[in-house]
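Posting for a labmate who doesn't have an account.
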Amino acid sequence: MSGRILDHDLPLLAGLTEADLSGLGIRHHLARLSAWETLFDQSDTSRDVCFLISGALMAIHWTEDGREIIFSRFQPGDHFGELAALDGGSRSLAVVAREASQVLVLERDSFLRLVDRQPLVRDRLLAAMVARIRLLTRRNLDLVTQSVEQRVRAYLVSTFFEHGCLHPGGVIEDMPTHSEIAASIGANREIVSRSLSQLRRAGLIRTGRRKIELLDPGQLAG
């Protein structure tokens, strides 16, 4: 099974060879999810580490009053679930498929052996964890210092940049819903919808069904 895990070209394992994995007893399997199917819930006691092979996943927290907060979206190649694997605790977030997806599930013991015996994997893992901490720090500062419209603008700029189309005429065909945007920036759907309408009337964006076109990136970022 060790050879097959390298066939997926996972960034965390890039540069490793079958010889590097020899003797580690790497155990993994593939899981297939339908759209909106849950991979695991928050407080789940599973401790394996997962890699998104295809599709799109969201990490979600549900508050006690039922509000949904989207912490992150995963792209193919991304890994997640390492916190529970490292400390033996329960899941802090649920992971839900936004569309039909395929996930490689690496058993916890295999992951821990990789981290222990492969410095390259350990260094990449630490770098990824630091990047997530920095991102969460920025998000917390945004909640304190920015209005909802400013957070919507920043979200759009970031999303266009991630899709490689932060330029006039750039189009995102599968834009998150207003509810998803609201859950991502700590706002409610009605205020997000109002902010998007204001940006559209100002000529900064053009919207359609699950589609958004960037008309004036300079003004949007400003």
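Reply:
Got it, the structure tokens are right above this. The CA atoms of residues 27 and 51 lie 13 Å apart.
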